[in-house]
């Protein structure tokens, strides 16, 4: 069974750094960059979540715009406060 490219790189990273390996296994999350929920902890606003979205120009491999949208009232209030700063 052949090891896929990313698995081979990951094995090399583990071999190079036991700290990296420990952190990797502590919170193993591998996912695409598309439309993720980002959780923020702001010193004044506390915790809030925003939906991350990419808007692409045509063709898809061209420029992209990263947009954050509020998930709930806390996110709306946080963005409104940050906009006033």
Written overview of the protein:
- With 85 residues, this protein is an alpha+beta fold.
- The protein has two domains: 1-30, no CATH class; 33-85, no CATH class.
- It is 39% helix and 28% strand.
- The chain has three helices and three strands.
- The chain has a three-stranded antiparallel beta sheet.
- Helix 1 (5-16) packs across helix 2 (18-26).
- The longest helix has 12 residues, at 5-16.
- The radius of gyration is 18 Å and the shape is flat.
- The mean pLDDT is 83.
Described by strand count, sense and barrel closure, the largest sheet is:
3 strands, antiparallel
In percent terms, what proportion of residues is strand? 25-35%
Distance between the termini: 55 Å
Average of per-residue pLDDT values: 83
Q: Uncertain regions: pLDDT < 50 for 5+ in a row?
A: none
Q: Shape, please? A: flat
Extended strand count: 3
User: Helix segment count?
Assistant: 3
Domain MmyB-like transcription regulator ligand binding: 6-82
Protein name: MmyB-like transcription regulator ligand binding domain-containing protein
Pfam families: MLTR_LBD (PF17765)
